[in-house]
Amino acid sequence: MTMRSIDQSALRVNQASIISFLILGFITDLVPIVAFVAVVMLAGTLFPPASLFKRIYQHILKPAGIVKPDLRPDNPEPHRFAQGLGGFVTLASAVALVSELTIVGWALAWLVIALAALNLFAGFCLGCFVYYQLSKRNVPGFTKEPVTQ
Questions:
Q1: In a designed cystine with 87, which of 32, 41, 68, 73 is the match (CB 3.0 to 4.6 A)?
Q2: By C-alpha distance, which of 77, 84, 86, 74 is closest to 118?
């Protein structure tokens, strides 16, 4: 089996962008920013080449030498699953905010911010953990196991 790798710098740029835009949405109280983040996350989950924040890394930050690549053995599937969960929660946040359920909407946005920050600063991906737990229990569709180095 071929060893797969993930550029952790691309993931970190993605997480930092999610955090930054959601905080900007909160500070400015602009629901369209929250909806934008949800669309970006879900589009990148369903069609990875459309992952806007990762494309900014690949086509601007990395070539300019602003952010250096950090390739590590890993599977992309758990990260896409985590992003999909985050995108779904962010979409629920936007829907709640549009429905004038302000406390619920911003609580959901801050949940995504907190989990993205946990991954960015502590290196723990809760969505990846959930993915691997489902894999361990042989849930259909969750076939990848953690990469051991």
A1: 41
A2: 86
Q: Which domain holds residue 62?
A: 5-136
Q: Give the tens place of pLDDT for each residue, 49-106.
A: 999 999 999 999 999 999 999 999 999 999 999 999 999 999 999 999 999 999 999 9
∠ CA 118-113-9, nearest 5°, is 60
Give the DSSP H/E element, type plus range, for residue 54. Answer: helix 52-56
Residue 143 lies in a domain: no
pTM of the model: 0.94
5-7 and 71-73 strand pairing: antiparallel
